[in-house]
Amino acid sequence: MNAPFGLTADTLTLPQPYLLFLGDTVERGFAKTALGLRDWAPEKCVGELALAGAQVTTGLPPMTPAEAYAAGARALVIGVANSGGVIPQSWRASLVEALEAGLDLVAGMHTRLSDIPELCEAAARRGRRLIDIRVPPANIPVATGRKRSGKRLLTVGTDCALGKKYTALALAKAFAARGLASDFRATGQTGIMIAGGGMPMDAVVSDFEAGAAEMVSPDADPAHWDVIEGQGSLAHPAYAAVSLGLLHGSQPDVFVVCHEPGRTDMLGTAGYQVATIEEIIDLTTALGRRTNPGIRCGGVSFNTSALDDAEAQDVMQRESARLGLPVADPVRGGPAFDALVDSCLA
């Protein structure tokens, strides 16, 4: 559980390097596992495999499983986190092909690799492994609500898949660069692959969500920071439950709101508009006070990947002035991100 920032996927007992599987994904947000591994563990990724109809790419060389194996890959990682975490029938021939080529399979889906008969048969025949990451530990306790020692920061969002993991990783790295004791606490499959430990929060039974969050961030030295990867959104009609359990169990002293300027509809839920930043600040503060009365917002993290630099700087400056809070894109960094770090540590 206590995987410090800087531990990469090679601390897991996972075969590497990886061929990143994108399936037939058309939504960039659903490819966050592949993109996260490309950005935070690039030395572990040799190429990508996409099916006909896919509209997302990591920018890595396209490879067949056989080509990837010849290039050194030892596992195919399902780099998609789609609605429901399913492995559709249309993917399965390619997954069997990867096993036949000598690759193990690694997935963080709700559908487990080991529950798919054709994959089990091919893995047994070829002596390959099926590795499911999204499996919580046994005997997670019900939360106690007890206040724990140490300091905690949680990333929260106006929607899903817009930068909570990237923000937490960047903040943990920035805290460490300032000489502070800090750990990145992974709560999703990609973060777990990057960090080498964590808790797949969205696979935990609802009654134990807050207890699982308490396990992720145990008692620590009073000066120590846990930077906790958020999940879902308190305003999302499908995924608010995991967000609330994580909020109550992590007891953050500080939270950072993650948002993508220009996104209007919630991911995977037609007809629901993305929550406003102010709505998430108010919800997080009101609900977070149940287990930490001192909770506060440290600022806002923008995902400006769809904007050029001038547009990004303009929207961040305008929103910072409007909100009275630092607004930064952790990937772009710079003085705005330094100000966000300062505010979180104030």
Automatic annotation (TrEMBL):
- InterPro entries membership: DgcN-like, DgcN-like_C, DgcN-like_N, P-loop_NTPase
| Domain annotation D-glutamate N-acetyltransferase-like N-terminal: ranges | 57-136
Q: Boundaries of each D-glutamate N-acetyltransferase-like C-terminal domain copy?
A: 142-335
Organism domain of life: Bacteria
Which PANTHER family does the UniProt record give?
DUF1611 DOMAIN-CONTAINING PROTEIN, GLL3100 PROTEIN
Protein's recorded name: DUF1611 domain-containing protein
